[in-house]
Amino acid sequence: MLDRSIGEFSRFVVIALGCTIFGFATDNWQLALLLALAVYLVWIFWQQSRFNRWLANGRRGPAPTAFGIWGEISDDFYRLQRRHRREKQKLHAMLRRVQDSTSALREGIVALEDDGNLAWWNPAAGELLGLQPEDAGQPLINFVRDPGFVSYMHRRDQGAREPLTLPAPRNDARILQLEVTRYGQDEALVIVRDITRLHNLEQMRRDFVANVSHELRTPLTVIAGYLETLEGSGQAPQGWQRPLTQMREQTARMTTLVNDLLLLARLETSERDSGREQVAVGELMARVAQEARSLSGGRHEIRVDCTQDATITGDATELHSAFANLVLNAVRYSPAGGPIQLRWWVDQRGGHFAVKDSGIGIDPIHIPRLTERFYRVDAGRSRDSGGTGLGLAIVKHVLLRHSAEMSVDSTPGHGSTFTLHFPPRKLGTAATA
């Protein structure tokens, strides 16, 4: 810019000297100098007015042709226009590629503006949610009116959220999974998947497990009854006592497995947050500790620490199952003489129930899969302990129904600590139990 100013000043000096020399030749140099200055200023203002009109008209077409400093400015604008036009074409081409690729996706994609208003969606989302072109600019919750989705959209936490499963707005037979990702200034991206087939397969699996488990209960009861009769009658053939004992133990184990499968099926199919009982934590811990001492047979030191007694709003049977599974697992997997601690405390984040054992610990690679059905860290030790492999899966579903979470802290060779975290809204004072 400094070079342009110097160049323009040089032009003005040349014009002024020429007019001055002409003025001396005609013996009227003052008038010649003023006339030259006036012509120069008119020329500058004329070029500026042309340039201003071009800017006011939206810079349509190339910048006006000019000379001097305004000519250089016009050239710069022309170069900027060309670069901007190339970048704009590149962005348009990229946008077309993105739109073409998202249009080919089977998953629906919905872009939301401020306040959850529809900005753009691909054809799959339009088909899954029943959106029409004239719906642009309206809130998405006007078309997906499920109360669970409305509360899901109103949540402002940026942490990881599980996808929401619900029926399609215009077709209850179709099951959708929606996941919201927020970005920018209150903008969001909604991913919509059709999981009808997976949902139906999962429902078939649940029905199969529940039906088979239910049908197995009667024959197992009959077998257990006959085995108990044979053992107690004293009429069993000589040498059959040990086989009968093993048969009775395996029948009891099979009965426990069937009962756990039925409980899991009930937890999966029933609605969440259905329990409204006030369950006293202190009484529940005392009952679970007594069961653990019975299973231990005096082989472990079981301590209970409940200095801040409270109540949990929920289902008493389910909560007892969750607490008992953790404590009985600690008994099964802790060596004889090892301490087991049951602890309950309350803080600003809610209530917490922890079970600390003195077992061999769990390698960190196994922790994410502990709540899977029949997942075993050590299959041989699990079979010897009599576990079914469903205990932590039951704990997981009980916690889901009580809006709670579980964390695991374990180091191989130094035992494990399983902690259940209950939100403050689920807690009350022990006096209300």
Structure report:
One of its GO terms (molecular function) is phosphoprotein phosphatase activity. One of its GO terms (biological process) is phosphate ion transport. Residues 211-426 form the Histidine kinase domain. With 433 residues, this protein is α+β, with helices and mostly antiparallel strands. It has four domains: 2-99, no CATH class; 105-194, PAS domain (Beta-Lactamase, 2-Layer Sandwich), CATH 3.30.450; 198-269, Signal transduction histidine kinase, dimerisation/phosphotransfer (DHp) domain (Helix Hairpins, Orthogonal Bundle), CATH 1.10.287.130; 277-432, Heat Shock Protein 90 (2-Layer Sandwich). The chain has eleven helices and 13 strands. The protein is elongated.
Describe the structure concisely for a colleague.
This protein has 433 residues and is α+β, with helices and mostly antiparallel strands. 51% of the residues lie in helices and 19% in strands.
Q: Output the strand order for the largest sheet.
A: 2-1-5-4-3
CATH class of the largest domain: Alpha Beta
Multimer state: single chain
Task: State the CATH superfamily name of the largest domain.
Answer: Histidine kinase-like ATPase, C-terminal domain
- Dominant shape: elongated
Helix residue percentage: 40-55%
**Separation of termini?**
82 Å
How many separate domains?
4
Output the CATH topology of the largest domain.
Heat Shock Protein 90
Which ranges are low-confidence, i.e. pLDDT below 50, for 5 or more consecutive residues?
none
How many strands appear in the DSSP assignment?
13
